[in-house]
Amino acid sequence: MRGNQSRENAIRYSLASTAQFVMANFNITMKRISDSENNHMVASLALAQLVIGLAGLSANGQGTFEYDQQSNTDETPPSFGQGGDMLQIPVPWGQSFTPSLSGVDFIRLKFDDPSPGDGVGATVYVNLRSGSISGSVIGSSAAVAMPNLFRGTATFVFPSTVPLATGVTYYFEPVVQPGRSWNIDGGPYNYPGGYAFVGGSPSGGSDFWFREGVIVPEPSSMALILLSAATAGYAWHARRERGSSPTLGPPTVRQPPP
Hints:
- This protein has helices spanning 7-35, 40-59, 221-244, and strands at residues 63-70, 84-85, 94-97, 103-112, 122-130, 136-140, 144-146, 151-163, 170-176, 183-184, 186-187, 196-198, 201-202, 207-208, 210-217.
- It has 258 residues and is of the alpha+beta class.
- A hairpin with a 2-residue loop joins strand 12 (196-198) and strand 13.
- The longest helix has 29 residues, at 7-35.
- The N and C termini lie far apart (95 Å).
- The relative contact order is 0.22.
């Protein structure tokens, strides 16, 4: 595996870590509120801290994939032996695409194990290039390890969003670990924004199967529920504090002693 962790896993880890932190402090916060029944200021501050923590949790929920360019949307796993052996494709090879978004977070490709009985999988990562199929590398994804008997899609996530210029052609290059045969799916998909490249030249109406796009963060459902409850509790304590405050009346005139 390459050193960079998948952003998809990083998002999940961030969400889990934030949730663990907030929930670990939930009981402490509730105890502070319980112990502070006669001190509404302390109770309100405790609830305010909980609301802020849950707001951060809801803002850092797991992301969803928003697709931009794709040669095909059918993610049905290929048959064993259906794809082309990546080690046998003349270099440089890959796929061009023309984005309509100003960045890319992931590229999804389709593979199958060419030797399902050998007990060996493969590790693949993707280089993103500008200018040509052999141009400058502007981003490299985290590697994905696929096990023996694998057939299906694999998502390659970049450590951070790679900026792109809309309407400009870019190229991606899948790279398999040295010495390991592994099949990649392709065919006459007739993608209008680019071509499959083999030996440095475009191959007519053929394309590698791909989908690319960005990861859009979404709030955690659990966090939204807890945030609503905590906000309601905060409002209730605020009303209670106002209701228990002494009201000001006319000044009391003390009579002198007889």
